[in-house]
Design goal:
Blueprint lengths: L3 H54 L1 H28 L9 E2 L3 E2 L1
Antiparallel strand pairs: 1-2
Helix pairs in contact: 1-2
């Protein structure tokens, strides 16, 4: 027969092992959480970057780019004529508002 002391020691040893396993699991869970938080931040940066790329390379982005180049060229050509007609006294400035409207 096992003595009460031996039973208590076995119970203590088992409970200590369970405790150590829980501490290890907690540490692993904290490490995983930290890695997931870093991964979440990286994914958010990627999402923002891809959103920006999609906006710039999407239909409206390409249209705005083409329109910007056309407006710039139009301004340069018109300025040549204005310089001739006004002896350099008139200046034409065209701007794009939000990449879509000429003002």
């Amino acid at each position: 027969p096992m003595s009460a002391f031996m039973m208590e020691k076995m119970t203590f040893d088992h409970e200590n092992e369970v405790y150590e396993n829980l501490v290890t699991e907690k540490s692993s869970a904290i490490d995983l959480l930290e890695r997931l938080e870093v991964q979440k931040e990286e994914e958010e940066r990627r999402r923002c970057l891809l959103s920006d790329v999609a906006e710039r390379c999407g239909q409206r982005g390409v249209q705005a780019f083409v329109l910007q180049n056309v407006v710039h060229t139009l301004q340069q050509v018109a300025q040549v004529y204005l310089d001739e007609l006004s002896d350099g006294g008139q200046i034409l400035e065209l701007f794009l508002e939000s990449g879509e409207k000429i003002i």
